[in-house]
Specification:
- The chain is α/β, with parallel strands linked by helices.
- The chain has helices at about 20-30, 40-55, 70-80, 100-130, 150-170, 190-200, 205-215, 225-235, and strands at about 10-15, 35-40, 60-65, 85, 135-140, 175-185, 245-250.
- Strands 3-2-1-4-5-6-7 form a 7-stranded parallel beta sheet, with helices on both faces.
- Nicotinamide-adenine-dinucleotide binds near residues 37, 140, 183 and 185.
- InterPro entries: NAD(P)-bd_dom_sf, SDR, SDR_fam.
C-alpha cells in the first residue's frame, strides 16, 4: 500500500531512541522528510545519520529539551510547517503519590500534557490552511488501565487525552487528524530502566525479570519499536483521514477488556 505521504515533512519528538525513533524510521521509509528532536546530541546525530543513509530523505536533527519553551522554539524553527507531528517525551518516574510535591506534578504535566498541547497549538492552524495534517501523540496504555506506581503518568496523560478528544473533532473536516498511540510494554531503554529497578528490588537477574514479565503478555513477548512505528506511519497516511480522536492500544493483547 502506498501511504501517499512521500515528500511531506514530519516533526518527530523524542526520536533518537525507542518508540519515537521507530516512528521516525517508518515515516522516513515512506519518503517523509523528518526533523528529529532529542536531548543527547551524540545519540541523536547517530540516529539521524542512519536514517539518512537508509532512506535518502532529508533528516534534520535538533538537540534540545522539548519540554522547555526554548526547546520547542528551536524545534519549530527547524521544521516550521510540519505536515505530521509526533508528540513524545520521556515518561515521568514511578513512585508513591504521597511523596510527590507540586514540582513533580508540574514536571509531569509539562512533559506529557502541556508540551504536546503547545506543539499542537503552534502547528495545527498551518495544517488546516494546507488541508493536510496528521498529529500522533505517544501516550501510554496507562491511560486505559492505570498503572499504580505511575500515577504521574496516569494523570498527566489522561489530561492530554481529554484535551485531544475535544479538538480532534474540530480539525478533521480540514483533513487534519489527531490520534493517540498507547504503548503497552515495548523493548526500549525506558522499559529496561523500569524493569532494572524491579530486578534490583527483587534481587533477581535482569534476564529473569524480563523473561517473566514478557510471558505475562498474551503475545508472550514485548513489542518492538519498528511495529509501533508502522502503526504510527499508517495513522499519518492519506488512508487514515477518517480516523480522529482515537486511542489506539498496542499492547500484545494485555488489556483484558472487550473494548
Ligand atoms: P526511550 O527512553 O527509549 O526513548 C525516549 C526518547 O525521547 C529518547 O530519544 C530521548 O532522548 C527522548 N526524550 C526524552 N525526554 C525528552 C525531552 N524532554 N526532550 C526531547 N527528547 C526527549 O523511551 P520509550 O520507551 O521510547 O518511551 C517513549 C514514551 O512512551 C515515554 O513517554 C514512555 O513513558 C512512553 N511509554 C513507553 C512504554 C514502553 O514500554 N517502552 C510503555 C508505555 C509508555
Amino acid at each position: 500500500m502506498d501511504f501517499g505521504i512521500a515528500g511531506k515533512h514530519a516533526l518527530v519528538c523524542g526520536a533518537s531512541k525507542g518508540l519515537g525513533r521507530g516512528c521516525a524510521e517508518a515515516l522516513a521509509g515512506e519518503g517523509v522528510h523528518v526533523t528529529l528532536v532529542a536531548r543527547t546530541v551524540e545519540t541523536l546525530e547517530a540516529t539521524a545519520a542512519e536514517i539518512r543513509q537508509k532512506t535518502g530523505v532529508t533528516v534534520n536533527a535538533v538537540a534540545c529539551d522539548i519540554t522547555t519553551p526554548e526547546g520547542r522554539a528551536r524545534a519549530l524553527a527547524a521544521c516550521p510547517q510540519p505536515d505530521i507531528l509526533i508528540n513524545n517525551a520521556g515518561g515521568p518516574p514511578p513512585g508513591d503519590f504521597r511523596k510527590w510535591e507540586r514540582d513533580d506534578w508540574i514536571a509531569a504535566l509539562d512533559a506529557n500534557m502541556l508540551t504536546p498541547i503547545e506543539l499542537i497549538k503552534a502547528t495545527v492552524d498551518g495544517m488546516i490552511a494546507r488541508r493536510f495534517g496528521r498529529i500522533v501523540n505517544i501516550t501510554s496504555s496507562a491511560v486505559k488501565a492505570p498503572i499504580d506506581v505511575l500515577g504521574l503518568s496516569n494523570g498527566a496523560r489522561s489530561g492530554l487525552t481529554g484535551f485531544v478528544a475535544g479538538i480532534a473533532r474540530k480539525t478533521v473536516s480540514h483533513n487534519v487528524t489527531i490520534n493517540n498511540l498507547l504503548p503497552g510494554q515495548f523493548d526500549t531503554d525506558r522499559l529496561k530502566k523500569t524493569l532494572g529497578a524491579a530486578a534490583a528490588a527483587s534481587g533477581k537477574g535482569m534476564d529473569e525479570v524480563m523473561a517473566a514479565r514478557s510471558q505475562q503478555i498474551p503475545a508472550q513477548r514485548f513489542g518492538n519499536p519498528a511495529e509501533f512505528g508502522a502503526v504510527c506511519a499508517f495513522l499519518c497516511s492519506v488512508h487514515a483521514g477518517y480516523m480522529t480522536g482515537q486511542n489506539v492500544l498496542l499492547d500484545g493483547g494485555n488489556y483484558p477488556g472487550t473494548f
